[in-house]
Amino acid sequence: MTVTTLFTGVFGVYMGERGAVFEVADGSTAGDLLNHLGEERCSRLPSGLWDAENGRFHRSIRLARCGGPVLARSDTLRDGEELLVIFPLAGG
Asked: What percent of the chain has pLDDT over 70?
């Protein structure tokens, strides 16, 4: 199945593009997609965002359905959907 990711904010700046289309297996989860994204494009990211040793993003990197909620890593993806890769920053 196909899913489109849109890179928002500073995450998009690090990636050097606005988004990407991925082919993933039926039944793939948000966590599966994040892992795939990181493995494929981790060289573009600062080491604080992608933990190469453990093969995963920092816990603040999340996926959200466009116009919908933030996904848990275990949430199943849907064919053809658009997802936002978000990196919320705290400030004050």
From this structure: 95
